[in-house]
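Deliverable D4.2, example record:
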Amino acid sequence: MPLAEELLLTRPLDPGHELSVALMLTREHLAHLHELRVLRPAGLTDPQFNILRILRGGPSEGCTIGDLKRRVITRAADVPRLVDRLGRLGLVRRVQNPQDRRSCRVILTPKAEALLNATDPAHTAFGKELEHLLPPERLQAFLADLELIREGIQKAVGLTPRSS
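Output generated by the structure prediction step:
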């Protein structure tokens, strides 16, 4: 459905404004679908799921809070609080950081591993569902365009691109 129709717009938007509204609305729809398909059945929020996935894909000795802050998708996320909440849920634990006694490393618990393993089929199916929304010949070009937009926005607000 065209953006103007979906939002009941009575006047056309400038191209840049239309792009920003389209991206934000698409992000909202995507987040809602992800919540329905993956998060809600697991009893997790999007930021919690993001932290758990970062930890699962990170080094076996865990990640520091700073590592998590650099890698989390939602920059406004309060990572220390998220880690505390995940700890109370029995999904992560903090261990002393041998490289720096003033900090700790966060690691997944077996309970979190089991929860993530249980979400894997739904998460994979969600990705396939999205992948099939575009013809294969357009997918890589679309991803490249999104990368250009992200890099332009990062530059405009003075952020350095994230490194994995």
